[in-house]
Amino acid sequence: MSNTQITAVTELDRSHYKTKVYSGGHFIYSDEPEALGGTDEGMPPAGLLLASLGSCTAITIRMYADRKQYQLDAIKIDLAICSEDQMDKSTTITRTIEFTGQLSDEEKARLMQIADKCPIHKILSNPIKIETSAKN
Fold it and tell me: In 3-state terms, what secondary structure has residue 51?
């Protein structure tokens, strides 16, 4: 990650849960499934959280593998988070990583260590303080 502060803006009008998300000049939708009253036109917020962790993990592994010239062809990361009613101080995210390519056992083990070096993993593994204020 760079030293530049990362920002995001979310906007929700009278649309039922379909939220516009802007960051770094890019745009996506977040939404809830139809069963919860949404339009299911975007990932749910928890899906975006998992997507952030998964993509950051994959990018971190790829950067390291490329620098070390490992024969890593592909990375697949499966993630899951516990249900909302199970979330508390010990919320659990499971992450399973699959490598494709000609890698030794030592290289695979090192890539698994590198996975925990991803900035989003570091953020989610430490206490997070959220400061909220209203804008007039």
Answer: helix
- Answer yes or no: pTM beyond 0.85: yes
Question: Helix or strand or coil: residue 113?
Answer: helix
Alpha carbon 99 to chain centroid, angstroms: 18
Pair of tokens at residue 79: 């993630």
Q: Give 25-81 pLDDT, tens digit per residue.
A: 999 999 999 999 999 999 999 999 999 999 999 999 999 999 999 999 999 999 999
Domain boundaries, the chain: 1-42, 44-131
Beta-bridge partner residues of 9:
22
Q: Is 44-131 a CATH 2.40.70.10 domain? A: no
Give the long-range contacts of residues 37-43, CB within 8 A, separation 24 or more: 39/15, 42/18
The one-letter amino acid at 32 = E
Closest CA relative to residue 34, chosen from 18, 51, 53, 52: 18
Give residue for tokens 């697949």.
76
